[in-house]
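User: ok so my PI wants both of these folded by tonight, can you help

Assistant: No problem, let's get them done. Here's the first:
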Amino acid sequence: MKVYTKTGDKGTTGLYGGTRVSKNSLKIDSYGTVDELNSYLGLIRSYEIDPALEEEIIIIQKGLFNLGAELATPVDKLYLANGKPRIPKTISEEDIVQLEEWIDDLEGQLEQLTHFILPGGNQPASHAHVARCICRRAERLTVGLAEEEEIRPELQKYLNRLSDYLFVLGRKIATDNNHEEVKWIPGE
C-alpha cells in the first residue's frame, strides 16, 4: 500500500465509507486533533517513564484510533447492512470508567491539590500538560461537531475524562522525577 494517493491534492479527503469532504471541515479538524493528541502521547512514551504509565498510554492510544475512526465515519455509515458496527471496537462507558480508575489511583499517589499549579516539570511531564491542552481542543471540536451531526456522547465524555487523566499524569511524572510543583497564587 502506498502512503500517498494523490486523491487529496484538491483539498478534499475521503471519509470512512467513501464520502469526500473538505479538509477544512469540522469533522476533519475533530479527528485530526485526536490524531495530533495520539502522536503527542507517543512523544511522552518516548521518554523513560514508569512502565505501568506507558502501558496505560498505549491503551489510550489504541482507544484514540478507535475514537478517530468513529469521528471519521459518517453517521449513516456507522453500521453495516446487517446491523453490525462498521468499527469493531468503539469507545464505551467501560473505557471511561477505566480512565477514572487510573485517575483515582494516580491521585492517591500524589499530594492533594490546594492551588492551581503551573504546567511544567521535566520534559515528559510538560508534554503531558501540552497533551492535556490538545485533548481539550479535541473535546471542544467534537462538541462543535455534535452540534452539526449525531455523535455518541461517550466520545465527548471520554475526551473530557482523558484531559483529567493527562493532568494527573503530568503531575505524577513530575513527582516521580522529584520536580516540585509551582503553585499559582492569584495576584503574584
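One down. Here's the second:
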Amino acid sequence: MNTFHKLIEQAGLKEEVTVAVVKAEDREVLRAVEMATERELANFILIGDEKKIDDLIAQEFPSLLQNGRVVTRHAVDAAAAAEKGVQAVRDKEAAVLMKGHIKTAPLLKAVLHKEKGMRTGNVLSHVALFEVPAIERSIFVTDAAMNVAPDLQQKVQIVANAVNVAHKLGVSMPKVAPLAAVEVVNPGMQATLDAAALTQMNRRGQITGCIVDGPLALDNAISIEAARQKNVGGEVAGQADILLVSSIEAGNVLYKSLMYFGNSQVGAVIAGAKAPIVLTSRSDSAQSKLNSLAMAICSAN
C-alpha cells in the first residue's frame, strides 16, 4: 500500500461497515459521505440537526437520497450527537465513529465516558498516514493529536496502536523509528532514552509485530542517503514506515509541515478504542475525510 487511491480500493473490497457521523450537518462531511457511498465503501448514520442535514442533502447531495446508504437521526446539540454516535458503536450498529462539525472535546468526552464510552483500557492515540510526494511512498506519524507528553509505557501502547493499524492496511512488519534530535543516547534528552528502551523492548519480544530502532533523527529515519552519510546502520534507518514523535508539539509541527510544505495527502484515525474513530479537523477537505474513512474501514475489518 503506497497511495490513498489504492487504500480506497482496498477499503471497497472489505466487508461492508456502517459509520456513525457525529454532527453531520456540514458540506465537506456530506461531500466525503457522498464520495464514500459512490464507491460503495460504507453505510452511514448521520447524527445531528435532522432538518439541516436533510436540507443540505436535498439541495447539494441528492444522490444520498437515492442510494439507500444513509439514515439520519436527530440530536438536540453536540453533546447529544456525540452520545448517540458512541451508543451506535456500543450497540454494534456502527463499526466506525466519525467526527463531523463538532469540536474534539465533546466528542472525546463521550468516547471516554467510564460507563457509556468506547474505552478498552488501552491508551488512545492518533495515527496519521501521509502520502509524501518527496519520498514517493506513504508513512505513518504518531501521535500528533492525543497524548501531550507520553511516558515510556504510553509510547509502548502508541506504537502498538500504530502497528495494529499498519497491519490492517497491509504492512506486515512495519519499521518503527522513535524520533529524536540526535542518533545517539544522551542522558540529558529523554526522547533518546525512551527510544533506546523501546528498541531493547522490541528485541526482547516485549513489543511485537514490528521492528523498532532508535533514536533516529528525521533525516536518518526516512532517507537512506542521509543514514549512509552519517554512518547510521540498522534495519530501520532510511526505511521507516512509522515515525514515533516524542511529544504532541513535535507531532503537530511534523503533521502540518508534511501537509503545507510537503504537499502530502493525509488520512488519520484514533486507535485504541472499541472502534476506529475518524477525527479529522473541521477545516479538512472532503478528500482528507475520505482518506481517513478508508483507513478506518480497513482498520475496522
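The longest strand covers residues 125-132. The chain has two domains: 3-119+273-299, 125-261. Good luck tonight!
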